Amino acid sequence: MNVCMIGTGYVGLVSGACFAEFGVQVVCTDNDDEKVAALQSGSVPIYEPGLEELVERNVRQGRLSFTTDTAQAINSSLVVFIAVSTPSRPDGSTDLTTVEAVAREIGRSMIGYKVIVTKSTVPVGTFAKVRGWIEEELAAAGREVRFSVASNPEFLREGAAIGDFMRPDRVVIGTEDVEATAILNDLYRPLYLIEAPVLVTDIPTAELTKYAANAFLATKISFINEMANLCEKVGADVHAIARGIGLDRRIGSKFLHAGPGFGGSCFPKDTRSVAHFAREVGQELEIIESVIRVNERQRERMVEKIVEALDGEIDGRTIGILGLSFKTETDDMRDAPSLDIIRGLEKRGARIRAYDPQAMREASKLLPGLATCKDAYEACSGADALVLITEWNQFRMLDLARVKSLLRQPVIVDLRNIYEPGPMQEAGFRYFCVGR
Questions:
Q1: Distance (Å, rounded) from C-alpha 160 to C-alpha 329?
Q2: Does any domain span residue 73?
Q3: For position 240, which CATH number holds?
Q4: What is the spatial distance between Cα 81 and Cα 47, in angstroms, rounded to a whole number?
């Protein structure tokens, strides 16, 4: 089977490479000439463990290719995935400009039957718009071409995306005709060998399933952060509480880690999007609206925590920051908590020295003038406090004696609860964490 993946961002590139690993012939297309040229030369523009090797192997073996000739890629394929960016607008709604442009290009280009699949996260009802945009272009050209539309949302965790694709918890396929269902079931046939659950639904259900999953996980994060804030008021330990409720199999332990709030390309965008289109149809999602507010306040609270750790005197102080990406094992800075925290500190007059194992280049784009360091210890040097924002493994076993000698004063603010309060205090640090 031949597959076209339109968009070589995170979702498109990972999905295209993984389909190729299944033995499918995949062509990934993008209108960014520089990005395509880089991919053709073997340079992967994003950091994802194992992705560079996966791309290189499948290109070398002739199953994966990259092009800017979208029309040719479409017509050489049976299944065409739309995997382009769907950013949030200021009001929280989803910007479908790029999806529309792709759908119209498909309509202008295709000359035979295709299954058009939205892989991008899009509001419920987008499939009807995609169908309409394609039909408009066909009508304008005076052509009649049969096609199917479908939805196949992605559930890839950054930092573990290849494993999530190859060994998924589930695959969700939304279709409206038996032909598209059969073709997509055949495309995912390799997963039947490992008995991965494949859920076939109508298209609106498939579109909403992605939002429901992310909104629920975001709710768990905001819930435990509210509990952490309460713990600080009453002297309780959020770690013990998370374990106490997480052992209940109805709740589970995942996503019950107190911290600076959720970020990244999915949770913030998807919660705002589902809240927006729910309001549009007259069914406000009160829980999700609250989840969004709690997450925004949590970032502000982290800034206040850092200020309090320095006894309210932050103007002119130097703060060492460890961890900039929104989570570990990625260089993704989209909606990262570090952005709001650093900007909040700088607004109060602090000077920032920062280090992240993978996200330095992206951080420099988003935070012009940020003083970046070569390693964790350079970030500590001469700082009035050290703040841990992302829990990279290399930060879990810092040489604390060295850290203490480099800091102007032994203040550590651990926003991910990497360390234990008792041992840190015994080591001579003024240690501040979340919910403990």
A1: 8
A2: yes
A3: 3.40.50.720
A4: 22
Choosing from 201, 223, 246, the residue where a domain stops is 201
Say yes or no: 137 and 176 in one domain: yes
Residue 195 sits in the same domain as residue 314: no
Tokens standing for residue 43: 């340079």
The string over 274-287, giving b where at least 16 C-beta atoms fall within 10 Å of a residue's C-beta and e elsewhere, is bbbbbeeeeeebee
Asked whether residue 209 is assigned to any structural domain, the reply reads: no
State pLDDT tens for residues 362-398: 999 999 999 999 999 999 999 999 999 999 999 999 9
Active site residues: 266
What is the pTM for the complete model shown?
A: 0.93
> Range of 234's domain?
214-432
| Rounded CA separation 373/387 (Å) | 14
- 129, two tokens: 């718009």
State the Cα–Cα distance between residues 53 and 70, nearest whole angstrom.
25
If asked whether residues 329 and 427 sit together in one domain, one would say yes
Q: Are 268 and 335 in contact (CB under 8 A)?
A: yes
Contact at 8 Å (CB) between 140 and 109? no
Considering the domain architecture, whether residues 133 and 248 belong to the same structural domain is answered as: no
Spell out a b/e string for 58-91, using b for 16 or more CB atoms within 10 Å of the CB, else e. Answer: bbeeebbbbbeebeebbbebbbbbbbbbbebeee
What is the C-alpha separation between 353 and 319, in angstroms, rounded? 6
* pLDDT tens digits along 292-339: 999 999 999 999 999 999 999 999 999 999 999 999 999 999 999 999
Q: 385: which residues sit within 8 A by CB, 6+ positions away? A: 306, 309, 310, 317, 319, 320, 407, 409, 411, 412, 413
* Alpha-carbon distance values, 427 to 377, 410, 412, 419, 430 (Å): 17, 10, 11, 12, 9
Residues 232 and 352 in one domain: yes
Written as six digits, the tokens of 72 are 């040719």
CA–CA dist 95, 100 (Å, integer): 10
Cβ pair 378, 353 in contact under 8 A: yes
Which has the closest alpha carbon to 82: 51, 54, 104?
A: 104
CA distances from 274 to 91, 150, 371 (A): 12, 20, 37
What's the mean pLDDT when you consider all of the chain? Answer: 96
